[in-house]
Specification:
372 residues; alpha/beta; Rossmann fold; three-stranded mixed sheet; 14 strands; 36% helix; 16% strand
Length: 372
């Protein structure tokens, strides 16, 4: 049985991908710090091998007997990257390169690296750059998250040899339900806002373009990349997209879908300028080489999100667990507070009544989390 190592298997994309791999008959080893807790992965934890580890400590033991590695790990969006640029560089670039190097040295023949379509971001305001971009288009990302992903790509792809096949997936903005649910992704945010307050807010007039891809389609694409001959994909970059949507169109489609489900919702358009991303990308190469064609529409995904959110009780919409940056900030603060005493409620044996030793936070660990 083929064994696939999934770095970041407890994350937003990871929880869906692991289930897809198991359904397709793969043996799965998850390497993850379980940053968001074990509850989202509860449905498969008894069917996988879990190594609770930081991706920055990735070593040969993690890939023992593996036939492929899928690296989903790292910080996952602009706010988290900007919150801690050092951790962003360590995980998204340095640790991702380390995972590839360890995988190659161990003789594992295939590695898939999760990159981002945000590498293509051209911003808004220059219509001459508003063109459909493919894997050969020049890129000049400015944001810390996108630049960290591009730096990893440029180090990993040249590692390709006859016996080692690295592959890069530049995913559009992912949407859809996952047991490790996120409400900080654009379509998911629209659904959350509609359910929680009956209003979808569109910033900057919704003029910006965004490529999107459903999380279950993402999982299928990863599995497809494991099944095609290595020589076909080695050293290649593939864009993964369902389609390119203006945010204004996406909001209106979300409104119409929710109304059909009996959920009344208004669209509130804000025309003031905000720092926004805008880019369009082509998925033709993935269709041509991998045979990847997205199957899940925006409307189908919205209906499933509503159903699963209610089924799982993910209706505590302000819970920081659903927002990567909020959860990171909360845990960083908790580490600092708990670090002063070493416990929360149950006092360890031998602990005194109080502890007033200074703690400036200098040695505070930074969380390494599953990216998607």
């Amino acid at each position: 049985m083929s064994k696939v190592v999934v770095v970041g298997g407890g994350g937003y994309v990871g929880c869906v991908l692991v289930e897809e791999l198991l359904a397709m008959g793969f043996s799965v080893r998850v390497v993850d710090r379980m940053f968001f807790g074990r509850e989202p992965a509860r449905g498969f934890l008894d069917r996988v091998e879990l190594i609770d580890a930081d991706m920055r400590d990735f070593d040969a033991a993690h890939v023992e007997d593996a036939t492929a590695v899928i690296n989903l790990g790292g910080l996952s969006n602009d706010p988290t990257a900007e919150f801690n640029p050092k951790a962003n560089r360590e995980m998204n670039t340095e640790a991702s390169i380390r995972v590839a190097e360890v995988t190659k040295r161990a003789g594992v023949p295939r590695l898939i690296f999760a990159s981002s379509g945000s590498i293509y971001d051209r911003g808004v305001g220059d219509d001459s750059k508003d063109v459909l971009l493919d894997e050969e288009s020049p890129v000049e990302p400015r944001a810390a998250y996108a630049t960290s992903k591009l730096a990893a790509e440029r180090a990993i792809l040249p590692m390709a040899t006859d016996s080692f096949a690295p592959v890069v997936f530049r995913k559009g903005t992912v949407f859809g339900f996952s047991p490790r649910m996120r409400y900080d992704l654009v379509l998911n945010t629209f659904v959350k806002d509609a359910l929680s307050r009956g209003v979808i807010t569109v910033h900057h007039g919704g003029a910006m373009w965004r490529p999107l891809v459903e999380v279950r389609d993402v999982a299928r694409a990863y599995v497809m990349a494991l099944q095609v001959p290595e020589k076909v994909v080695s050293g290649q970059i593939f864009n993964l997209v369902t389609g390119n949507f203006r945010i204004s169109e996406l909001a209106l489609r979300a409104q119409a879908s929710l109304m059909e489900l009996g959920i009344p919702v208004k669209v509130d358009v804000d025309f003031t300028y905000r720092l926004v991303r805008s880019y369009r990308v082509s998925g033709a190469k993935a269709a041509r080489v991998l045979g990847f064609h997205p199957e899940v529409t925006v409307e189908e995904s919205i209906a499933r999100m509503v159903e699963q959110i209610n089924l799982h009780g993910y209706t505590d919409y302000s819970n920081p667990r659903y927002y990567n940056i909020d959860w990171m900030k909360l845990l960083e603060e908790a580490v600092e507070i708990v670090g002063k005493h070493g416990y929360v409620l149950s006092k360890p044996h031998g602990k005194g009544g109080s502890s007033r030793q200074p703690n400036d936070g200098a040695n505070r660990p930074t969380a390494a989390l599953a990216e998607s």
